[in-house]
Fold:
Amino acid sequence: MKLFYIVLSLFFLSPCLVVHAQRISDSTAVALEKFEQLQLQNKSQEALNILEEAIRVTVSPDDLSYLYAYQSGLYTSMDSLLNGKRLLDLSLENAEKSNQNTSKAVAYRAKAFLNNILNLPDAVVEDALTGLRYLNQGDEDPITAYHLNYLLYSVYSKWNDEEKMEKYIRTCEAYAIKAGNQNLRANVSNGISSMYLTRYRKSRQKEALDSSFHYLNNALAIYQAHPKKVSGNTAVITFVNLANYYLDFSSENVAARKQHAFKYLEFAEEKLRNKEASTEKWINVFGIRSGFAKKDGDLALAEQYLQQGLSQLMGDSGNHFRLEYLVNKDLSEIAQKKNNLRSALAYQQRAEELLRKSFDEQQLLNAQKLEIQYETEKKDQQLKLLDARSEFQKRQNYLYGGIAIALLFGVVFMFISYNFRLRYSIEREQKLQQEKAEAERQMILQIRLGAEEQARLKAEQELLDLKRQQLEKETLTNSLIIEHKNDMLKQIQDKIRKGDTGNIQKLLKEEMLVRTDFEDIKMQIQELHPNFFSRLSEKAQQKLTTLDLKYCAYLYLKMTTKQIAQVLHVAPQSVRMFKYRLKQKFGLDKDLDLEEFLQRLG
Structure:
């Protein structure tokens, strides 16, 4: 069944020409809808007439880019490659005039399809990706997006890149569903089935075969749900694929497999008799029937089926030399198995004759391809030459413009330079004057600072002299206190020698009274002002001694300098010096009164 697979693969790789127009006139949209219906019925000539009529009545670049693109695709699929190329150029020309990115995408879809027929896979990928980029920039067109992705799927199928195949066929599936086009949905299900079948042949994993069968049934379900919205070609492909599954892959017994397969083949034959599908598919139908006859060992019936398929093929107006060659090769093999060497030789000779005709036909097709490639390269060279001239003219204009701009910049630079020098000289003069004034201000400031520094040094010197005097007075006071203590001790010693103990007790009590006076005063102050002494300690910047606290307490009680001197048995000058030291310990300014500060604390 090598013949079957070769023919079937061609149908898988040929995208359907069903379209939905966007951004076009209502009359063109109606024409494309009629075109779609005729394509579903396999009426290519009537479909071409619809497009030609629509082209005659429109001048819109958007409409023409669509109409010429579909004409190009249809002529290309009919192997009229020169017409396909001519119409493609018209589509691209109008797409360039259009402001719609969808029109450009449709034109590149037709270009990618032509390159696919010309067997230029790299060009197909480039054109299809360009078309998709235009779609990404413009309005959404799921039908065009589907066909561009299907072309990419077909290229990667040839390159046997399974990862890219699945990526693009799955994208096709999403766009077919989004467009709500049942024919595309059935077609893409057949494509996915083919992908899994290819995977099964490599890996022999049953899961891949099951997936292939699943998607065939999915395509069948879509056809059964929408029989008028699925083209005859797509339906026949589905039926033939299902029949082929039962021929080659089903695990059922031969009788059951044959029953299933022939049921689907009958559906396909009905479509073919109604001319809803292309004639060459008869070969697939009778090829599968012949395969089952071989499994049954009935070589005569197998030969009969192939001859029936061959008669259907030869009755068509077109040339199918390649298919006829493959059928005659198969007939030759059957005749050899039947030991009918004369028939085998006749089939072989006929096959060789058909092979020559196929070769000649292929040569004609190759000649078209070469002519198209030549015209394309010629046009590309012309475009490159025009681009080179345009680039040269552009560079020349840039050069002249650059010279003019340079001259203008020169004049402007001279003017700006003159103004800059003038402004610079004025600013320079102003800056010198400012620097001179600043220097004078700095000099006056330095003089003032020098005077203030001298005054500060003088004040510090006076303060040091005052401290020195205070230390001298304190020393004198301490000397007096020591002298007083020594006198008291001497008096006590004299009293002891004289045996006058009563006077000794009196003298000690007077001394204790002097010492306890402060403790009583402190207790009175704490009763009236409990936080007085703690706040003294908080406000003091240096630690306060017991003597400091005494002075503060006496001053807080508003005792005079003389009174404090009498209580402490010191000179009044010593009290004044001690007050000065307290102000320093509290960090008070010299102008602030110490007694007033202590009153505020209370």
Notes: The two ends are 121 Å apart (CA to CA). The chain has 23 helices and no strands.
